[in-house]
Write a structure and sequence with these properties.
CATH superfamily of the largest domain: Cytochrome b5-like heme/steroid binding domain
Order of helices and strands: HHHHHEHEEEEEHE
Helix content: 55-70%
Strand content: 5-15%
Largest sheet: 5 strands, mixed
Number of domains: 2
Strand order of the largest sheet: 1-7-3-2-6
Radius of gyration: 26 Å
CATH architecture of the largest domain: Roll
Structural class: alpha/beta
CATH topology of the largest domain: Flavocytochrome B2, Chain A, domain 1
């Protein structure tokens, strides 16, 4: 009788895990489209897609698949102490690995390799202008971010700014700077979807044409503000 109650309980857990997994997967897809295509409000999309849904998917997947494997082993008549230990160990390792990656590993700042170039952008342009003469000094006294003079030359025909790759790399979304990316020769302000200069594995301040067209069509980025063009 006690064994029957245990089996009924595990069956309920399996069914609940399956429904939760399906719902979480659907919401994960919808929130992903919210981040990339504006399907839902981006603030909600970030909370769901980055903070809550990955953990729900990991736990529901582990319970559902673990219980399904248990039933399979019982049907194959290999359900013994050894197979129980293997299954439990696999589930624990799965939860530990992906739980650790989700909660801790992806929290590590990924901008440290860019720091040396950031320092050069913060110091070198300022020092070069100071050497040219005192007439340029008032500009730095007014502007809080003197590096913005890098892109101070507008295009005459349409008033857009002209960026080199070096200029573009300054706008990396870090330390309050906007997040600019270049796609198909046009520079867009993507500060809305780049969090701390990062969107998935992509970093702001770069030409992301190849990466963008691997997943999207051009119309999906044209809704964001255009700030300039990428120099040839």
């Amino acid at each position: 009788m006690e064994q029957q109650n245990i089996e009924k309980f595990l069956t309920k857990v399996d069914r609940i895990s399956a429904w939760v997994l399906m719902a979480a997967f659907i919401l994960y897809m919808v929130s992903g489209y919210g981040l990339t295509r504006g399907l839902i409000d981006i603030s909600w999309a970030k909370i769901l897609h980055i903070q809550w849904l990955p953990l729900i998917v990991i736990f529901s997947f582990t319970f559902h698949v673990g219980l399904a494997l248990r039933l399979t082993m019982m049907r194959w008549q290999i359900w013994n102490k050894f197979s129980k230990a293997i299954l439990i160990l696999d589930c624990v390792l799965f939860l530990f690995f992906f739980g650790y990656v989700e909660l801790f590993y992806n929290k590590v700042p990924l901008t440290l390799p860019i720091s040396p170039s950031e320092e050069s952008f913060q110091e070198e342009p300022y020092q070069e202008e100071m050497e040219e003469g005192e007439e340029e000094i008032p500009e730095y006294q007014i502007d809080e971010e003197p590096e913005t003079e890098i892109v101070s030359q507008p295009l005459e025909e349409d008033g857009l700014l002209l960026f080199t790759l070096e200029d573009l790399s300054y706008y990396d979304g870090q330390e309050g700077r906007p997040a600019y990316v270049a796609v198909d020769g046009i520079v867009y302000d993507n500060s809305e979807i780049f969090e701390n200069g990062k969107h998935y594995s992509h970093l702001a301040g770069k030409d992301l044409s190849e990466e963008f067209f691997s997943y999207h069509v051009l119309e999906e980025i044209t809704k964001y503000p255009v700030v300039g063009r990428l120099a040839d």
